[in-house]
Amino acid sequence: MSYEFAWLDYRKGVAFRAADLFKKIALTGFDDATAADKDILFSAELELKRASRDICGQEAVFVRDEAVSDGINIVFDKSLGLPEGAYGIEIDGTRITVKASSACGILYGVFRALALIRTGRISEKQITEVPTSPIRMLDHWDNPDGSIERGYSGKSFFFRNDHLYVDDRTREYARLVASVGINAVAINNVNVNDIATGLVSGYDRKELAMIAKIFGDYGIKLFISLNFASPMSLGATDTADPLDEGVAQWWKKTTDDLYKDIPRLGGFLVKADSEGRPGPFSYGRTHADGANMLARALAPHNGLLIWRCFVYNCQQDWRDHTMDRARACYDNFIGLDGQFDDNVILQIKNGPMDFQVREPVSPLFGGLKKTNMMVEFQIAQEYTGQQRDICYLIPMFKQVLDFKTYNGEGEGILCDLVTGKGLSRACGMVAVSNTGDDPNWTGHDLAAANLYGFGRLAFDPTLSSEEIADEWSRLTFGYDDTVAEGVSKMLMMSWPAYEKYTSPLGIGWMISPGHHYGPDIEGYEFSPWGTYHRSDRNGLGVERGKTGTCMIDQYNEPIRSIYEGLDTCPDELVLFFHRLPYDHVLKSGKTVIEHIYDSHFEGVLDVEEMIGIWESLKDRIDELRYKRVADRLQGQLRNAKEWRDRINTYYYRHSGVPDKQGRMIY
Ligand code: GCW
User: Fold this and answer.
1) Model-level pTM?
2) Is 76 left (phi over 0), alpha (psi -120 to 50) or beta?
């Protein structure tokens, strides 16, 4: 499949005085770099070449180790002491200087300088940026057969016909994600099946090494998702018990061999004892036993072991009201705090359930005190419209990052905990990727704002959602205020709109089972997955407070009291935490049933408004992309109406309460 250049299409965008700037480009300190650094610096050089050609149609003239007064100076200088990945940019009339002490810093600084030129923001005189998260990662759920679990943008571009696949697009991908600061990528699904099990032990090793090299050229470390039972599945041992000497030896040798071929491998990512995947529980061992055994194989190579906390019972009995899936993540890991080796990082989903449109923050973040943590977001829009509906997730991620956990060390702001502020811990942010081999990478053109935005946010969480939307729009659609305003408005209204027309007040789910698009209110109600809303004629919701499953007690004070109290619990989460009657009056002044009706009618109106905005931009956006988005918006409108009518009808029939405004409910 052919591909487009997304926000890196330098032919788009107006460049003020760009031709002058590109007249001369001076590279300083490049020749003294190590071999690995040179590869990254070379990518930066290529980028400048490409930009010069595409922005102003001229070949860049490079000079070495001399400062130019008119043009671009790129200064690689370790003695500046800037942290890894950090850069400084100085703009002075017709001279731009990018400085860094690491090769990645140069690469990021070059991308940033080019973005500033393209968005016309070269009046900002001096910028120093230090990446906030040490690890800024994308997890791909790609399978060897080319399918992508929860993929909504075509097929995998890493795998095809049961093999790894390397072509121009591999490099283009690395370039794209490095441009927003991504420095770690797991290319295969955390559900590691069949052939993928062999990736750690030699399968397609040549291609794997090629991918790692291309990633390395862009400062990205390759991670491999592994099957916890690999030695057993591959027939080398008859157990996968993490405390078995033979198992540990197998992992050690396998890992040593892997590092011989791929010296800069980042490490492993593991989903264990979750949704049918093997794990230490089968041997009566803890997740610390499992993770540490693997971490010890990686430690001599400085590798990291990323262990997922998405562990819950998916064989639940819906009749049993005492069990609560929302408790599982905390209950499974809190007792292990302090038991993990230094090179283990726990990867915790942002919410206690599973990437719903609205969830509280996982209480595990505020519970663990002596464990490395990463927050896991999902930009693949599994439950948020599957890249058919627009849902710009950056505002949600920001709310999560701003959350105060009160973990005993002051406010314990989540962003600080996962970025290791003040501590030199291994930690960071990860997102389940939303890319595939569709020409525009993300299926919906506007879904690319989530890919772009996640990277930018992981680098600098102080950026606002609006800034990111505006910047992405200008880089993608060109320098046009009207387009940027319109597109940003659409993006900013999209998450609230999606929340309004889907399941209400934080209760989540109600999506069609299996594929997870569109409504099916009772689809999971009598299933083993543990995701219930328990609606009846009296009300709806799961009581998670003191009279229920006590899940609220997993939070620290004062959050615990805030969520426990009906007068303090925020409306948007009230049905996550409490079971309520339809006539319960929310803080907004509306009853629960009024809120359900009103929000669903509003959600559809919001989609109509987005369509109106898009139509107003018709002559300003190229035909191909205009039409792609316009078509998807019509699909979104159909989806929103389907949700509205099903939810409103269901709750009208259950509650018997008519709509005050007499709107059409079936
Ligand atoms: O959201 C759920 C998905 C599964 C996924 C799982 C996980 C990779 O429905 O498809 O499996 O989460 O995060 O492991």
Assistant:
1) 0.98
2) beta
